[in-house]
UniProtKB/TrEMBL annotation:
It is found in: Periplasm. Residues 1-28 form the signal peptide. Its main location: periplasm. GO terms for cellular component: outer membrane-bounded periplasmic space. InterPro entries: AraF, Bact_Solute-Bind_Prot2, Peripla_BP/Lac1_sug-bd_dom, Peripla_BP_I. Residues 33-325 form the Periplasmic binding protein/LacI sugar binding domain. This is L-arabinose-binding periplasmic protein. It comes from the Bacteria. Belongs to the bacterial solute-binding protein 2 family. One of its GO terms (molecular function) is carbohydrate binding. One of its GO terms (biological process) is L-arabinose transmembrane transport. The record marks C93 as: The binding site for the sugar molecule has not yet been established, but C-87 may be involved.
Amino acid sequence: MFRVPGVRSLLRAALAAGAVSLSLSAFAADPVKIGFLVKQPEEPWFQTEWAFAEKAAKDKGFTLLKIAVPDGEKTLAAIDSLAANGAKGFVICPPDVSLGPAIVAKAKLNDLKVMAVDDRFVDAKGKFMEDVPYLGMAAFEVGQQQGAAMAAEAEKRGWKWDDTYAVINTYNELDTGKKRTDGSVEALKKAGLPADHIIFAPQKTLDVPGSMDSTTSALVKLPSGAKHLIIGGMNDNTVLGGVRATESAGFKAEQVIGIGINGTDAIGELKKPNSGFFGSMLPSPHEEGYQTASMMYEWVTTGKEPPKYTAMDKVTLITRANFQQELEKIGLWK
């Protein structure tokens, strides 16, 4: 004959086990949440990063929380919001790299893992925060490819180095910018352009007007024998402004070779039938979005931390001949 207390104990144990099982099942069914914060969501570059980060979320089964962070205040508020919504970590391209220490501190306070993309955090002394995982463009190597492409086009046109000069718009305050233009200059020299045919034009601002001003100041230093110009800079806008300055100075499109970096800011110019802006080195925002989101997912679910630095040096030269096809491949053609 069974004792009632024993039966009751077994029933209570069974119910408790069932409740725990249901709780664990519900927890397991709740998808991992990861944030992806970008400084300029209206830009095609970041829209593409988001789109491919969402593809990673779909492939791997996590939820992506996309937030625009145009300034420091919104950045720190977004991190609190991610924590409140149950996120485990986030990828960010900050509006200001000097926010790095504040972002890391806020992430630690909320027990969130953080990874930087595109722009690397710097500390209070302006040094890279190398302890934070980062994926971004290999600046010097991409600059080398830019310079090599400009030299190759000059050779294709039959230009002679003795009457060819380069104006390189620089912004050495930004380490990434300096590395890009340093790489570009090295490639031009290697191709045979004399060092004294390279004019450096420091910019005050990283935009088209800023590069117009710096290039205009550099053009007056050209000798009378300068027939052909190469215009370089750290991105599309620095080269676009330089090309505008050559137009105002009376140089024809066929006398100028300008090649930018990024691709996304050059679409309007490449739609024109003729311009001194020849092309742009297009990186891989689709790969960056997918890879960083995937790395963060692996980190929060398996504990596998991403490398401290993942260099992306794959770029494609887009020109009037191929830009639409190349942009269509990665969803950047509108």
